UniProtKB/TrEMBL annotation:
Residue stretches in coiled coil: none
Organism this protein belongs to: Nocardia mexicana
Gene3D superfamilies assigned: Medium-chain alcohol dehydrogenases, catalytic domain (3.90.180.10), NAD(P)-binding Rossmann-like Domain (3.40.50.720)
Stretches assigned to the Enoyl reductase (ER) domain: 11-323
Name of the molecule in the record: Acrylyl-CoA reductase (NADPH)
Gene Ontology molecular-function annotations: acryloyl-CoA reductase (NADPH) activity
Cited NCBIfam families: oxido_YhdH (TIGR02823)
InterPro entries: Acrylyl-CoA_reductase_AcuI (IPR014188), ADH-like_C (IPR013149), ADH-like_N (IPR013154), ER (IPR020843), GroES-like_sf (IPR011032), NAD(P)-bd_dom_sf (IPR036291), Zn-ADH-like_protein (IPR051397)
CDD domains assigned: MDR_yhdh
Amino acid sequence: MFTALLIDKADANPKVALTEVNEADLPEGNVRIDVAYSTLNYKDALAITGASPIIRSFPMVPGIDLAGVVAESTHPDWSAGDSVVLNGWGVGEGHWGGLAQRARVDGDWLVPLPAEFSARQAMAIGTAGYTAALCVDALQRQGIAPDQGEILVTGATGGVGSIAIALLAKAGFTVAAATGKSSETGYLRDLGASSVVDRADLAERGKPLQRERWAGGVDTVGSHTLANVCAQIRYGGAIAACGLAQGMDFPATVAPFILRGVTLLGIDSVRAATPRRLEAWTRLARDLDPAALDSIATEISLGDTIAAADRLVDGAVRGRFVVDVNR
């Protein structure tokens, strides 16, 4: 038996509770993992609170991330004792996820835990940090370089935004951070932001083309914010878009793309191929100071996740929640 956060749907409303689960009830997979840490992401919070229909089947263990040690494997790449990380691949949505003490998954979904990080630190990074690394990798593959100008990061105090700032600053970029939390200016500057922008300046409908300000952007917000960022990108610049905190809509025109040669790069972290994942984790291991994770991450227990999910959905959280699933 092991403890899991289980979401079930006996009637119209999902029920969430810490539950003792038999290992025989774990879903199919060729690798069984003793989970050490997970995270509480925005998507997890939506599933736990029922604010959005994230879960595709019931009962479900949420948690799109996990880090732990292989207990048993029939997969050729993994053996008992290997330290591994999992991000995405539909866990916590269609396959039981990381907010539990045990997991059984497809070994193709795993990557090795970088030696530079503990399991806790890897989950302080989690899908948010891994996505941030995918964004920075994409901008650099597009040819965006530090000497071309500032990079704007929206949703800057969130998990993706926080780590994107740290990675961009380490890569030599000048970073502007967009936030609605003026009290977090010191936090953002400590991460590497050179300036702070009021998110209200980006949140309403704007002109199709605006003053060219940014060489590139990392957007976690979507909707009018993304449209305005696109309208402010300099000629030949690019935006890596990976979130929809403001909305899924994109009320923009083609003007920035056909008149300024702007590129919009869609970043999918859920089903990214293994080479992209390894590239992202290599960047994180090389460029992210583990000490910076102390200011980004707050550790909670498995039992704390339900209350923390409400806070996360309400936007009352800075950085990341790391979940110790064994307390």
